[in-house]
Amino acid sequence: MPKIPTMVVGNKIDLVVVKELKQVLKQQKIATDFLTSAKTGDEVNTLFFNLAKLLH
Questions:
Q1: What is the DSSP string of 12-51?
Q2: Contact residues for 5 (Cβ-Cβ < 8 A; gap 6+)
Q3: CB-facing half-sphere around the CA of 45: CA atoms within 13 A
Q4: pTM for this predicted structure
Q5: What are 10's strand-pairing partners?
Q6: Best label site of 11, 34, 39, 52, fewest CB within 10 Å?
Q7: Coil, strand or helix: which one is 52?
C-alpha cells in the first residue's frame, strides 16, 4: 500500500482566540499540523509549502 501524506489543518482561526483553541485541542488530545485562516491568509502559504515538501 502506498504511503499517502496527510495533514490535519484547522481553519477559521480568525474567528477564535488561538491560545484558547490550542488549550482545548490539547485537553481533547487533538493533534493538528497547522491552524490557518483562509480569510486573512495566516499560515496558508506555509501549509502548502510544507505539503509540497511532503509530496516531493
A1: -GGGS-HHHHHHHHHHTT---SEE--TTT-TTHHHHHHHH
A2: 51, 54, 55
A3: 3
A4: 0.77
A5: 35
A6: 52
A7: helix
